[in-house]
Design brief:
With about 280 residues, the chain is α/β, with parallel strands linked by helices. The protein contains nine helices and nine strands. Strand 2 and strand 3 form a beta hairpin. The chain is globular.
């Protein structure tokens, strides 16, 4: 796979001719060849060591792993907590005419997903969970537009790039009774089978919204250089309380929830990298 990934990036480095992308002249600041943008999933949050403490951006994040595999350095602006609007406003500085690959993971923070997880667990209540889910459902309606606007902004700055947008993995396996995910402030946190199923259903809807944003942008612009990569199948068997080894971290004592809990661990970040590499190799 490494040779195929390197070959794919080599083709992209020739200017994206295979994708029939519009060519732009190289400016004084041509941009990085590979740029990564997005939220905590793209930042690899929770996996020490960090290369940027302020954004909880990890040396073990999937963009770093892709860069190490391909030999093409990555310029990553991915930052924990970033919404699609914040990514447009603050993460596009490395893009330019010379940029050939952009990876994006975004959308979940548009929903206050951490609030949903807190409310829809043993730490919350049924009314609080219902309210959080309803609010997330309303916010979800704006995700396709947020993704489409993000893609438009990326394309304006990186006219020759292949843009790869990923979805999110399911957090839970098939929970029969309940799933204990660790402790928060000394209190054990569990999810019932119904709560776990509800969380996974919310993530399915989020992935559909992200994919709809990609499809809407491509349909409106005819842009041939944008791809959506689904990672759900890659993570099957490796969620919380699943049949195989965990690729998602539970709550870890001594670390804030946002830092590690409910994020892909090192194996999960590798799975992200492998899914993207496989998609690139198939193009």
């Amino acid at each position: 796979m490494r040779r195929r990934l390197i070959s794919m990036l080599a083709v992209l480095a020739l200017g994206g001719a295979a994708l029939a992308l519009p060519h732009a002249a190289v400016a004084d600041d041509p941009g990085a060849v590979y740029v990564a943008i997005g939220d905590s999933e793209a930042a690899g949050t929770g996996n020490l060591p960090y290369v940027d403490q302020s954004c909880l951006r990890s040396k073990k994040s999937y963009p770093m792993l892709l860069a190490a595999t391909s030999g093409v350095p990555v310029a990553s602006s991915a930052c924990a907590g970033a919404t699609t609007t914040q990514i447009v406003a603050g993460q596009l500085g490395y893009l330019g005419p010379a940029t050939q690959l952009v990876t994006v993971t975004a959308g979940v923070n548009d929903l206050d997903w951490q609030g949903v997880l807190a409310a829809c667990s043993s730490a919350g209540t049924d009314p609080a969970c219902g309210a959080a889910m309803n609010a997330a459902g309303v916010a979800l309606q704006g995700v396709p537009l947020g993704i489409a606007q993000l893609l438009g902004a990326v394309r304006t700055l990186a006219p020759n790039a292949l843009i790869v947008v990923t979805g999110y993995p399911m957090l839970f396996g098939e929970v029969v009774n309940s799933c204990s995910v660790g402790n928060y402030k000394g209190v054990s946190v569990k999810f019932s089978s119904a709560q776990a199923a509800g969380i996974n259903s919310g993530l399915w809807q989020l992935n559909s919204a992200v994919q709809a944003g990609v499809g809407g942008y491509v349909g409106q612009t005819g842009d041939p250089g944008v791809r959506y990569v689904d990672v759900v199948g890659t993570f099957v068997g490796h969620g919380l309380c699943d049949t195989g080894s965990r690729w998602i971290s539970g709550l870890v004592p001594g670390q804030p929830v946002v830092d590690r809990g409910f994020h892909p661990n090192a194996a999960g970040q590798q799975a992200y990298a492998d899914a993207i590499a496989l998609a690139l190799a198939a193009m």
